[in-house]
Amino acid sequence: MKRLLLKGRFILPVLLAAAVFLLFISSPLDEMEVTVADVADYGGYTVVIDPGHGGADGGAVSVTGVNESELNLAIAEKLDLILAFYGVRTVMTRTTEELDYSADSNTIHEKKVEDQKRRLSLVESVDNALLISIHQNNYPSGGPFGAQVFHAPTDGSKMLAEAMQQLLVDKLNPKNRRTAVKIPSGIMLLNSVTCPAVLVECGFLSNAGEEKLLRTETYQLKLASVVAAGYLYMKDSLKDNINGGPNEDEDILLLYGLRE
């Protein structure tokens, strides 16, 4: 609860999001009932929330000139507060747009590699970790839209991604035809962790309508609530994978220029 007090401007909207949480999970994921008491045992996991990019790496730039890293952090902060409200242990890989680098990292590429290694080290240092990485998608044309969840090749990741994807479609955009897929092999963080892990591409910064939504706190809260709902719904099913798992195969599907 301490984090709720520290981020005063988010308290009311986050509490409202938490209050309507049951509406998100009442359907279509069966007829499960969840209370704060039910989830307060954490499910054994510490959720590592990773706002993608940051520092020297702003990620993609939206049609109105907003850096992806800023939107990633805004959504991740709300996810952190919602999970904290439900008694989940969390760790953020970054809490600011500013990142420190060693003197050996001079180019953006070198800084990006250093940052990814730092995040990987953080995830691997957390006991019973589960990683949720927040990103935004981009495409040369403005047509593609819709959130999509990618999963690591570790045990438990696929079923978590599928649950989150179903909620994202059913509760945010029924016209979204995207499905949960395995992360491409070139994405370092999710292909290197040993714990369950998903990457959520929350929408397309190249689509004017979706980008406008992504810039609003209301839609960011909805996204964070759905992602939280997906985790809380699946946490019991994931208990058997609490120590992570081995890579299963190397097949990948690259859609719409997914970036590290």
Give me some keywords for this one:
globular; 6-stranded mixed β-sheet; 260 residues; alpha/beta
Give the SSE order as H and E letters. HHHHEHEHEEHEHEHH
- Strand count, sense and closure of the main sheet? 6 strands, mixed
Strand content: 5-15%
Give the number of helices. 10
Structural class: alpha/beta
| Fraction in helix | 40-55%
Distance between the termini: 32 Å
Oligomer: single chain
Shape descriptor: globular
The value of Rg in angstroms is 17 Å
Describe this structure in words.
By secondary structure, the chain is of the alpha/beta class. Helices cover 42% and strands 13% of the residues. The chain is built from 10 helices and 6 strands. Strands 2-1-3-6-4-5 form a 6-stranded mixed beta sheet, with helices on both faces. α2 packs across α5 and α5 packs across α10. The longest helix is centred in the first third of the chain and has 18 residues. The protein is globular, with a radius of gyration of 17 Å. The C terminus is likely disordered.
Describe what is shown at a glance.
The chain has 260 residues and is an alpha/beta fold. It contains ten helices and six strands. The protein is globular.
Helices and strands in order:
Blueprint: H1 2-6, H2 8-19, H3 21-25, H4 36-39, E1 46-51, H5 68-85, E2 89-92, H6 108-125, E3 129-137, E4 148-151, H7 157-172, E5 181-182, H8 188-192, E6 197-204, H9 208-214, H10 217-234
Parallel strand pairs: 1-2, 1-3, 3-6, 4-5
Antiparallel strand pairs: 4-6
